[in-house]
């Protein structure tokens, strides 16, 4: 019997926010949470990543504040059409670093405890310069937990994993937003802690 495929469909709202967050803090680690829905059918599992909520940059947060943020985002997701936290994203500090480090693992593990099909989208810093060109190739690698470790998903593996942008128009929009320097307006939980008047859900950033 063939293994059940898990497909992660990343909507524009989520893709644009997480890449713009990483572009704003291009020389620092940064991360955030992904919210959406999950379903299961005859063709496998489907996870729709509908939105991204930026959390930390630089120090990437300490455990107590990250736990507070995770609880608040989970509550926000439930109120937003019954969604839930379905994953997280992380960008490493160095362009040549494509590893899942301890801070990325800690956050991803926290999400996965309540969402077994959670994903970790590790942003591909080495290709970030392509964001300005509207490249159609997603600027992230999808990792899933397998055998107790976070591993890059393989569409042809024993547990097939596929991640794609839906619809595929996000890269062109991203290039326009970067040209407008809209990424400099992104607010994360760190910024909100410094100034509570700043909305870290960024409801208008992609309007």
Structure description:
The protein has 207 residues and is of the alpha/beta class. It has helices at 12-24, 63-79, 102-112, 170-179, 189-194; strands at 6-10, 30-41, 44-57, 84-91, 119-123, 140-146, 149-152, 161-165. It has one domain (6-194): 3-Layer(aba) Sandwich (Cytidine Deaminase, domain 2). The longest helix has 17 residues, at 63-79. The N and C termini lie far apart (45 Å). The mean pLDDT is 90. Pfam families: UPF0172. Belongs to the EMC8/EMC9 family. InterPro entries: EMC8/9, MPN. This is MPN domain-containing protein.
| Physical arrangement of strands within the biggest beta sheet | 7-6-5-4-2-3-1-8
Specify Rg, calculated over alpha carbons: 16 Å
Mean pLDDT score: 90
What structural class do helix, strand and pairing data support? alpha/beta
Number of strands: 8
**N- to C-terminal separation?**
45 Å
Strand content: 25-35%
CATH third-level topology: Cytidine Deaminase, domain 2
CATH homology-level superfamily: Cytidine Deaminase, domain 2
Uncertain stretches of 5 or more adjacent residues: none
**CATH architecture descriptor name:** 3-Layer(aba) Sandwich
Largest sheet: 8 strands, mixed
Pfam family, one: UPF0172
Protein name: MPN domain-containing protein
InterPro entries: EMC8/9, MPN
Organism: Picocystis salinarum
């Amino acid at each position: 019997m063939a293994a059940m495929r898990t497909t992660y469909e990343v909507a524009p709202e989520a893709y644009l926010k997480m890449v713009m967050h990483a572009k704003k803090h291009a020389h620092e680690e940064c991360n955030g949470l992904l919210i959406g829905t999950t379903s299961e059918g005859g063709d496998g599992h489907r996870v729709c990543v509908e939105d991204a909520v930026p959390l930390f940059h630089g120090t990437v947060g300490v455990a107590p504040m990250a736990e507070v943020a995770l609880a608040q985002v989970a509550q926000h997701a439930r109120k937003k059409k019954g969604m839930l936290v379905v994953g997280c994203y992380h960008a490493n500090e160095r362009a040549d670093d494509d590893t899942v480090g301890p801070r990325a693992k800690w956050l991803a593990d926290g999400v996965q405890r309540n969402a077994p099909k959670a994903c970790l989208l590790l942003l591909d810093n080495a290709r970030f310069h392509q964001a300005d060109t509207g490249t159609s190739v997603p600027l992230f690698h999808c990792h899933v937990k397998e055998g107790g470790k976070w591993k890059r998903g393989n569409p042809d593996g024993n547990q097939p994993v596929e991640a794609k942008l839906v619809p595929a128009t996000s890269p062109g929009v991203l290039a326009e937003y970067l040209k407008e320097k809209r990424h400099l307006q992104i607010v994360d939980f760190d910024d909100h802690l410094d100034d509570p008047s700043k909305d870290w859900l960024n409801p208008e950033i992609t309007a």
